[in-house]
Specification:
Radius of gyration: 17 Å
Structural class: mainly alpha
Strand content: under 5%
Number of helices: 10
Number of strands: 0
Order of helices and strands: HHHHHHHHHH
Number of domains: 1
Shape: globular
């Protein structure tokens, strides 16, 4: 899990730097930097979604993932957990929950997260996650300068999410086939696409409620074989 520890450290460092710059940077600079992150997220999401090898798998995963996410209301549950953490640390940052969830989605649903965590678990090679850490570190500076301290605390779900995938890969290496990794990346791309639209304030999409789509991918692949 070396890669995950490095990734968490890079996000924490970037967040501290972003928080330090928050009072120094003019609002217009922080806004354009945030919009830049939104545009990049939008582009990455489109690129990843187009890499799917089976559009039906992608469609079914998003459809049933959205239904499940809506029924159990993942968005509200995660927001409550963030609010509890906010109360525990006595933060007065109004954007704490938004910052934590936004950063978690950006850092955790991309293909580098899945591929890097699987590779780290299978062979102990953290190189993909190290590369991801560099990117996440720069992004966290921009996010923290705009959305505040919640971005720093996104390291908690980041550690849990990536660490879990790494541990699963180390014990269930046969499960993470190339097809599953590619389709997980494509579904993650749809989530990033929705997040990019949200960051650019085009439309408010409850991307968190689409997270169960990632769990549907292996089932959809097995059914459509």
């Amino acid at each position: 899990m070396l890669g995950t520890f490095i990734n968490v450290a890079s996000v924490a460092l970037g967040s501290f730097l972003g928080l330090a710059l928050r009072r120094e940077l003019p609002e217009r600079i922080r806004k354009i930097a945030f919009q830049g992150v939104g545009l990049a997220t939008l582009f990455i999401g489109i690129k990843l979604a187009l890499q799917t090898t089976n559009i039906v798998t992608l469609f079914l995963s998003i459809l049933f993932g959205a239904i499940i996410g809506g029924i159990i209301d993942v968005q509200s549950r995660l927001e409550r957990l963030c609010d509890i953490l906010k109360a525990k640390i006595r933060s007065k940052d109004e954007k704490f929950t938004e910052g934590m969830l936004t950063a978690f989605l950006i850092f955790c649903v991309g293909p580098m997260t899945i591929l890097g965590s699987v590779q780290d678990g299978l062979s102990g090679d953290p190189s993909v996650l190290v590369a991801k850490s560099i990117l996440d570190g720069f992004v966290s500076v921009s996010l923290a300068s705009t959305l505040g301290i919640g971005v720093l605390f996104s390291t908690i779900p980041l550690f849990i999410f990536q660490g879990t995938i790494t541990l699963l890969a180390s014990y269930s290496y046969a499960f993470f086939t190339d097809t599953i990794v590619v389709e997980l990346g494509a579904v993650g791309g749809i989530l990033l696409l929705g997040l990019g639209i949200k960051l650019l304030e085009i439309k408010n999409i409850d991307v968190t409620n689409l997270l169960p789509s990632l769990l549907i991918v292996p089932l959809a692949i097995s059914i459509l074989r």
